[in-house]
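User: Fold this; tokens only.

Assistant: Input:
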Amino acid sequence: MIGKRIPRIDGRVKVTGEAKYAADYELPGMLWCKMARSPHAHAKILNIDTSNAERLPGVKGVLTGKDFHGWRWGWMPKTRDEAPLADDKVRYLAEAVAAVVAVDEDTAEEATELIRVEYEELPGVFDPEDAMKQGAPRIHDHLENNLSWEFHMDFGNAEKAFRESDLVREDRFQTGRVITGYLEPPAAVAIWDSSGITLWAAKQSPYFVYRHLASCFNLPLNKVRIIQPFIGGGFGGTKNDSLAGDFCACLFSKMTGKPVKFVYSMEEVLMTCRRRHNMIIHNKMGMKKDGTLTGMHSRVIADGGAYTAIGPLTMFLTGCISTLPYKLPNFKHEAYRVFTNNPIGAAMRGHGITHTRFAAEIQMEMMAEELGLDPVEVRLRNAITAPHETINKVTVHSCGLKEGLKTLADTPNWKDRDKKKESKASTRHGVGLSGTAHLGGARQRGHQSCAAVVRLCEDGSVDYLTGATDCGQGSDTVLVQIIAEELGLRVEDIDIKRVDTALTPCDAGTYGSRVTVLAGEAAQKAAADLKTQLAKFAAEKWEANPADIVFRNGQVYVKGSPQYAMPFQKLAQTACYSGSGAVIVGKGYSQYGIEVLDFDRGEGNSGTSYSFTSQLSEVDVDMETGFMKCTNMIIAHDCGKPLNPINVEAQNQGAAVQGLGQAIYEEFKMDRGKTLNPNLIDYKMPLATDSPPIQVIDILTEDPFGPYGAKEASEGAMISSPPSVISAIHHATGIWFKEQPVTPEKIVIALKEKEKQGTVKP
């Protein structure tokens, strides 16, 4: 089964409409929950009058922040600063201050407009650099300079490296304000009865919410049950965390004895939900005449928005992976996450690494150009090879970076890039390249293991239980393939159950490309455990060594003695009916086979393995209007061994287009904390017609820490896409752009400025 192009196991139910998402769930007597939101970005809450809302026919209850008795949640104990409903003051525009439950959605919506809140408006701060200044308005009263979190990493001697460099360059880069872009908004149905809380919710990490609800309502974990529907995309952020709606729906259900549902509107998503941190990166890099990197010093300032959320991990990731994918003997990093009166910054695909890798990749190419060096040769000169240990003790056991770069450099697209530059009329063609890295099997603090239970049915079919979430990436298919491979069965013989915290084993969730690697390890071990138990029955029958029993193609036989064979189904029946009956269940869980991570110093492995992505992008730029179109992409991706090539291709293509959006299309337009484009018309994500042809080339390596040698397969393309596209824009225009997104307006302004200086013809 491994390495075969097997269609997704959930494909049929999705295309026929059978798959149920959170918003599809309806229960008898169900009520609807809606939020009342603040019209101010920063204000004290003086009084909330809910009487008019309570008198509206059909309204069954109203909640305010005081109903949660000061409870807060967050990533770790000392950063728990977010309440389900704001109770003292609001810290970003449209923060939820009250909730209503009513007989239908329209009545609940109308009731929220009847709630009267008396505010004392406070001065706000909306730029992270301004927020750090002495005397800036405090978002949280106990913190000076609005510093949410900081990291300092220092390895080698960066200043000495700069003194010994032939070229040192300092630049300021900035990434844009972007959101995950899923099409399914957050939704859930909650019921609180004698068994506790049951929540059907769109969550890519259900066990996070399970813990939050238990803590908020002072319940044991076995009284909280999260049942996971199909997920309409996640990409981190909001669907990796809890929401006001989750807590309010549960409490309303307790108050009313009825199931309670909420569905966020897309406007609520785009105005209030977690988004990628906007970051400013001050990068300093040293290089020898031959292109050898000597050292790097990066200073990152991130707009964290109003609350901490998972921000500390984001800031850690901005630095710990900066020592990949190129040899970097000296590295210094300062990372500051700053509170502002903007929506909350949190995780998004390529978490933290997209920002600093964009800055370093573009700056390295700028320096190569300044030294008159070929950008591919500079990358090859500095590219790591396995085995490798970075200066901050990141250990790489497999690496296809050089092979990927060479593969792209050998294409006609790259070799003939200058011939194609002058195309037709005012349009110029550009070709750019990047080489990046990403971790797989991510870990953070706390519970990180994945587990699997594989139950044999007496007819030879198999039930598979996992706490790992498929939020659209196709991991369910890959995990079933792994079990089928171990047991010698077909994919059709394995049935995977939806995540249900009352039944499925605990799992940290879907983030950091960890599911295939860690849940895959657990699945492989559980299947092997079941196989070991079955092998004993076969060995007894044939008087053979259990280690010599082979499971393959639906058959079980003795190695080297094919005359001793039977169908897997027959062995299952024999085993299950033996004696008074046997119950055969396989169990397995993942274990990190690497040293402990020093989170405070940024030293060690934040994942089990590392993928390497080389990307070539082509663009056409109209030199009069600034309008551009990405016309082609080639991705040479080292994901170890592709377990399902269809999934690998699709995930790389999707990530590349998501990165394209970040590079040239997507940006929240903000005005004093207000999102001015909270809809999918004005927030410009790439359309299908904007997506170029994307060829994915598998660079095959084999990593010892992934099942069958597999590694991460997609987040790398999210990271490689922006620098390769922006490099291509430079090739077409001769201008380096250091802020994302590179819009037509920015191109026109830069071209006019360059024309004034007499360095470019219109």
